[in-house]
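This follows on from our talk about sequence and fold. Can you supply me with one protein entry, sequence and fold together? Could you add the entry underneath, on a fresh line?
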Amino acid sequence: MNIGEPAHLNLRNIPSVPWPASHGTASRGVAEMGAANVSPSVAGEDCGIRAISFGGGQQSTALLVLAAQGRINFRTFLFANVGDDSESPATLRYVEEYSKPFAFDHGLELTELRRIMRLTGLERTLLQRLEMPESRSIEIPVRMGNGAPGNRACTDQWKIRVVARETARRGATQEHPALIGMGISLDEIHRAKDTNPIPHQRKAYPLLDLGLRRTDCQRIILDAGLPLPPKSACWFCPMKRAEDWQNLRREKPALFARACALESTLNDRRDALGLDHIYLTRYARPLAEAIPDGVDLLPIFDEADGSCDSGWCMT
C-alpha cells in the first residue's frame, strides 16, 4: 500500500457484540451512524493484553477519557517516548501535567517506554541517533532534492518495536497476541492500515468503531475538564506542514533554530559522503529560507505532509 492510499480494512471476520446497556449511548458518532453494535476493540470477550498506543495528542487523549468512562475496553496506555530531547516539549509537558494525573485518578495505567539498546542497556533517543557523527543513514523521512520523501525508520524503531518489546515482555505471543488500539479518527481513516509487522500483536481502531472524528475527540476532552493537548510530533519531524513550521518559528524560535541546525548538521555529513543535500520541508531549500520569518506561505496540499500514515505518531 502506498503512502496516502486509502486503507481497505478487512472487518468482515470480526464479530460484533452488543454495547452494554449500562454504559448508555456510546457516542454521538455511533448514534448518527445508526450503529447497533460495536467491535471487540470496544467491548466483548477478553483477548489477553489490551493496550492503546498513546501519542499524547488529541486522539490518544480522547481514548484515555473514553477508557476512564468505561466506553472502550482498554485500561493500559503505552507511550513510546522517542526521547525527551526529541518529542515536542509541549507534548511532554501535557503528558506530565494532565495525562498521567488523569490516568492515575481513574485507575488507568499510562506507562512511558524508551528505546533501550540491547548491548549497553542504555537509552538511545532519536535525536542522539541523528546526531551521531559516524552515522551514514537518516532515520527520519527527510525530503530529497526533488521533494520526494526519503526512507523512514523512526516510527518502526522508536515506536512500533518499542511497544512490541513491551507487549512481548508482558506475555504476548503469536498464538495469543496483544490487541493494540490505535488513535485514528474517522476523518483520518486513510491512516488505518490492514498490515501488521508484529506477529504477536493485532491492531484495533476504537475511534473508528465509535464513528468519532477529531472534533468529537476535542469535545470529549473538553467535557472531561481537560485542556486540549497540542499536536504531538517530534519538533524536527519533516512531515510537518508549512503552517506548523511557521507556528514553530513564530512561537518557539529557539526550537526552530535547533531544527535549522540539525538540518545543517545532516547536510554537512552528507557533504563528507559526497551525497546530495536533504531538507526538512518539501521546498528543496534550507529550513530558514523555506519558512521565512514573518511571511505567511500559501497552504499547499501534499498527502505526504502533516500526518504519519501508520497511526503510531501524531495521535
User: Anything to note?
Assistant: The beta strands are 17-18, 37-38, 50-53, 76-80, 109-113, 178-181, 201-204. The chain has two domains: 27-234, 240-299. Residues 240-299 form one domain. The longest strand covers residues 76-80.
